[in-house]
Amino acid sequence: MADKRKIKTEASSSSSNINNGRGESVVVDVGRRRSSCGYCKSDSNTSITHGLWAHSLTVHDYQALLDRGWRRSGCFLYKPEMEKTCCPSYTIRLKASDFVPSKEQVRVSKRMQRFLEGSLTVKKPDEQNEPSSDAIRLSDSDDHGKADNSIENYLSNEIDSIVVTCTQRGEFPNDINAPKASVKPVAPSKRKLQAEEAHDLLYSSNISFQISAALKRGNKTIQKDNQSIDPNPKLIAEMLSGHLSNLTPPLHLSVKACNGHINFYSTEIQPPHTESITGKPSSVCKDSSSTSGTKGISVNKQSLEIRLKRSGFDPEEYALYRRYQIKVHNDTPDHVTESSYKRFLVDSPLIFVPTNGDVSVPPCGFGSFHQQYLINGKLIAVGVIDILPKCLSSKYLFWDPDLASLSLGKYSALQEINWVRENEKHCSSLQYYYLGYYIHSCSKMRYKAAYRPSELLCPLRYQWVSFDIAKRLLDRKAYVVLSDYANLLDEGDMSANNNNNNKKNVVEDQTQRGEEEEEDERFGEGSNDVRMDGDEEMSEVAFDESDESDDDDGTGSLTPVEMQKDVSNIVIGLKGMHLKYKDIRQAFGANERNYLENQLHKYATVVGTDLSERMIYSLG
């Protein structure tokens, strides 16, 4: 009994020391993992990482893991085994206050400003000769006929979007071959035939009749109130109108189903044809909640609003993500599920830290967030980010495929860099912008170096090295101990005071920027504007505890570095208790002890001594 009381006392003490009032990091070490590589597209499992499942993770511990080359996908943490993996991935960051935008990045900002001011019309990638539905605006013109046509296109595309939403929610069959909606103006002579409130009727769509006919041909039913119902135009029109009711405030229109038609009525007294689809200048919105923030940007023609909210599931975000993955990354619809989306971009082990007036915490707090971009209230992009004690870590971005020409990936990166600059005033330690992994051997990932001046993390000594230096080393070989650059570069290359070399470096810098800008144009919105390529993250989502591990069963020989690690102070989580390994070592048999110590040595090597003694190594 005395021994048990002693163990419980020590367990309580260990937990108290780790907590420090900031919560506890609890992880499960899943060891080495092999998978196919999304970068070099190898046929075999050549991508090698070390993985952890995080039940909970403090923002300070995750910051420390980032600075040792780790990264998260949902609640899964992974770190490339740089010497063994096919495509070595280097953590890249820049100091926001030192950022100097390139000509291309300046052009992106100006392009967005022109779009918001109404002087730039955005067209869909597949409809270059037609007005874009998502521009939600008209060019300045006295041609009322063109204005009406743009309104009709906008409303038609909104209905198409709602049909997709109804399909995703299971209200319509997944295999429905729905026709494209067509919204047309209603002539005064025909209004009484289609509507009860005919005097205000402006536009109408008969899409419900077409959907009903398509469903009947396929012997399909629709779902309403958990019941299967035979399709009819009136019911379908009511379902679509219900979803459309909140989509038309910029147009001053109301929506109502009538005899199977979807009708749009004017809510203004003035003649409807003088109204164009333009955004109203928005005032700055202030969120009273300490867990989110909003800033508005006043514009002449359209309103851009950027909202910062805690990570959580949002049906509108998911619908946008689904469109993005299918259209941009060519994912099949059955692959982009709500559960996979949640695991990938919603679930987070990070323990939220509110500001509570603490000057060392930004107003929004620390944790995982979604940054929403809205134009006239319509969601066009979502940046998934982590806000940590030293940085904003950009995880993923998805955006409206119809707005590809706005370069929303580049634009959001500039906004995130600016966010760090602004919030450094509130939290002096928050200075950096982390862009994830830089892979020099993958041309589609080199765009990250366009955000200058950046630096890469040395994979051995975890020191930060200027990208301009690291690039010369990586041009020679894929895996390099970057902190050894003084020994690896020729003396002439390192002579900073040599005028000839300085001139050469300037030329190289200009050439590099030109190549990067050409590369941006070449890979375009399909990959380059996504700061974290889909394969980079999604390849890890498939990992779970049932995956086959590497052929190393965990009992193989340790490297000299791993053997030097002291594992006695690693805190073990076992049956609700937290105990240092040295205090429970004798509770294991010889074989169990050898196996566990082997695992602990490897764990201490990949996370570092400090973190291994701070985080809880869970055994269940």
TrEMBL record:
GO CC, any one term: cytoplasm
Class of this enzyme: transferase
Domain N-end aminoacyl transferase N-terminal per the UniProt entry, residue ranges: 35-105
Sequence ranges of Acidic residues compositional bias: 534-554
GO molecular function: arginyl-tRNA--protein transferase activity
Low complexity composition-biased segments: 12-24
Annotated stretches, region: Disordered: 1-24, 119-149, 274-293, 492-562
The keyword Nucleotide-binding appears for this protein: no
EC number annotated for this UniProt entry: 2.3.2.8
Sequence ranges assigned to domain N-end rule aminoacyl transferase C-terminal in this UniProt record: 316-458
Keywords carried by this UniProt record: Acyltransferase, Transferase, Ubl conjugation pathway
Comp. bias (Basic and acidic residues): 137-149, 505-514
GO biological process: proteasomal protein catabolic process
Reaction equations catalysed: an N-terminal L-alpha-aminoacyl-[protein] + L-arginyl-tRNA(Arg) = an N-terminal L-arginyl-L-aminoacyl-[protein] + tRNA(Arg) + H(+)
Family stated for the protein in its record: Belongs to the R-transferase family.
Functional summary from the UniProt entry: Involved in the post-translational conjugation of arginine to the N-terminal aspartate or glutamate of a protein. This arginylation is required for degradation of the protein via the ubiquitin pathway.
Protein name as catalogued: Arginyl-tRNA--protein transferase
